[in-house]
Amino acid sequence: MAHNLQHNYAQEVWDKDRQHFVHPWTHFESFGRDGSLVMNEAKGAYVTDINGKRYLDGIGGLWCVNAGYGREEIVEAIAAQARKMPFFNPFVDTTNVPAAELAAKLAELTPGDLNHVMFAGGGSTANDSAYRLVQYYQRDRGKPEKRHIIARKEAYHGSTDLTAGLSGKTADRNPNFEYTHDNIHHISTPDLYRRPDGMSEEEFSDFLVDEFEQKVVELGPDSVSAFWAEPIMGAGGVHVPPHKYFTGIRSLCDKYDILFVADEVVTGFGRVGHWFAVKDMFGVQPDLLVCAKGLTSGYQPLGAAIFSDRIYDSLNANPDKWFNNGFTYSGHPVACAAALKNIEIMEREALFAHVREVGPYFMERLQGLRDVAHVGDVRGSHFMACIEYVADKETKEAFPYSVNIGKRVSNAAEKRGLIVRPVGHLNVLSPCLILTREQCDTVADVLRDSMNEVLAELSSDGII
Ligand SMILES: Cc1ncc(COP(=O)(O)O)c(C=O)c1O
């Protein structure tokens, strides 16, 4: 009886969701038919659905539950702050304790002189704020013609009107939307796997840096405002750029007086073993840095755009000017309290030392899947990984879109109790940073079985 009640409730929730919750990235046709997997509980590196089935979460919520699920201390910090003061106006000249503490902490953790923090509700709106600051800064210093932004083709920076334009993912360019920003330009993805035949990694790096310079020259050096990049491209297929790529672009930014914006929404807060990747992995000091996700480990929505003393000090103190940007929930005290506790845990547990130790083992186990037929590439760094499937390993020819191989493999993994993310012909992985070696083994073993099941199915359907 109790079981039936539970079952009926699960069905009811599934149906309410299907009828009323319009999800990010809705595919109306299949959603109306299949609805959603309803997740209901989580602990450690595992999530449990409403029917009680447990899964190892290979995607850390969505590249964000870095500290893992079930952190009572974060829950307590959230409750304590909500009880004490859930909210107060952050505009102009009132603030709250957690926001002030967190801004100072971020100034300490971010590289170099990034000491000034604009809070937002997530990664997209933090990128929006960074963009508005870049615009304001260039005009404020008398360079209104500096309005062009150079981003990359497979980049993902969010889903507001602006950040959808800043993003370059071809699969997301939708004819039903207007992309109105004529000042945003996309250059090549640093995709080592699909680099031109016969080009070494070093030559490819030079080629990409040259392409950046050519774009600057084509637009007019005095009209380029900023370069926007994820240190390791995430949703666009986990592309770790070639060595020297970012240092090359940084020196051109210096040469042409262009700002360097690092979108560390995914790479920040330990995913690749450091607080931030741009300086610690790639040796580049950005002018602005955007973060979200791991900032609170997903316990609360929060994003931040952090910028340099150099920009801050140059902003004109003209008494008639306002930088009118920000949101009701900028620096929300409950979200900032969650972030502070999350950061405290990361520091206390030396979580990133664990990432630096176990992350390479995770990658090694995934690299072992290269011997599976139709696995073309396995790439990434630490707890940020991607598997690319191809119709032909020799020519790297992609599967037709209709094969939807990433989704087939993720469905097969889900049956076996593992969540991985399908992105077209890719599977993307970004587990909680607490993952153990044994759990790395489980991910690799389950993936191998799932791939074999899918390949057998494709073979019996005559697709391969
Ligand atoms: C690199 C990057 N920037 C920005 C965003 C957008 O963040 P949000 O979904 O919190 O708005 C994402 C989301 O996945 C991201 O991966």
What does this structure look like?
With 464 residues, the protein is of the alpha/beta class. It folds into two domains: 37-70 and 350-460, Alpha-Beta Complex (Aspartate Aminotransferase, domain 1), CATH 3.90.1150; 72-348, Type I PLP-dependent aspartate aminotransferase-like (Major domain) (Aspartate Aminotransferase, domain 2, 3-Layer(aba) Sandwich), CATH 3.40.640. The protein contains 15 helices and 15 strands. The strands form three sheets. A seven-stranded mixed beta sheet has the order 4-10-9-8-7-5-6, with helices on both faces. A four-stranded mixed beta sheet has the order 1-2-3-13. The chain has a four-stranded antiparallel beta sheet with strand order 11-12-15-14, covered by helices on one side. The longest helix has 24 residues, at 437-460. Residues 122-124, 127, 156-158, 230, 234-235, 263, 265-266, 292, 303 line the site of pyridoxal-5'-phosphate.
Q: Outline of this structure?
A:
The protein is α/β, with parallel strands linked by helices.
Key terms:
about 475 residues, alpha/beta, Aspartate Aminotransferase, domain 1, Aspartate Aminotransferase, domain 2, 2 domains, seven-stranded mixed beta sheet, four-stranded mixed beta sheet, 15 helices, globular, binds pyridoxal-5'-phosphate
